[in-house]
From TrEMBL:
Organism in which the protein naturally occurs: Actinopolyspora erythraea
Family: Belongs to the LacAB/RpiB family.
Protein's recorded name: D-erythrulose 4-phosphate isomerase
Keywords: Isomerase
GO molecular function, one term: intramolecular oxidoreductase activity, interconverting aldoses and ketoses
Enzyme Commission no: 5.3.1.34
Length: 151
């Protein structure tokens, strides 16, 4: 699996930790880092999050982990990219259901909300989940995709 990561300067330290973890995880073949690389880079979160989400939409990344102060801005941004489903999740159940119910490819977190150890644990769990296209949830997700294609 290829995983994209991105953060603004509020999330860069947590993003670095998570990227290191992903690079050491045998389930991850490649980590694509869309920045920022240090907190002197004050580019706004949509610029970073949209770049990573577009990589998911193009099929260059299977999933993405995006970090800002709250996770909310990254989530709103990523959800603007056609075909991308993103969620903020700071708890285990939401991280699980974001895959199993919603087939979200993008997990966002807020570095000002969650501690690094819980964030690392959630990413580890999240990597282990997959969406079952034959599940009852699939038709619900398809409804969202159909809506997106109407416009
Ligand atoms: O959390 C953020 C966006 O959701 C970002 O890190 C900070 O945004 P700001 O509060 O608008 O500066």
């Amino acid at each position: 699996m290829t995983v994209a990561v991105a953060a603004d300067n509020a999330g860069v330290e947590l993003k670095k930790l998570l990227a290191e973890q992903l690079e050491g995880d045998s389930r991850v073949g490649e980590v694509l880092d869309y920045g920022v690389h240090d907190d002197s880079d004050d580019r706004a979160y949509p610029r970073l999050g949209l770049a990573a989400a577009e990589a998911v939409a193009r099929g260059e990344a299977d999933r993405a982990v995006l970090v800002c102060g709250t996770g909310i801005g990254m989530c709103v941004s990523a959800n603007k990219v056609e075909g991308v489903r993103a969620t903020v999740a700071h708890d285990s159940y939401s991280a699980e259901r974001s895959i199993k119910s919603n087939d979200c490819q993008v997990l966002t977190m807020g570095a000002r909300v969650i501690g690094p150890e819980l964030a690392r644990r959630l990413v580890d769990e999240w990597l282990g989940y997959s969406f079952d296209p034959s599940s009852a949830s699939a038709a619900k997700v398809a409804y969202i995709t159909d809506y997106e294609h109407q416009s």
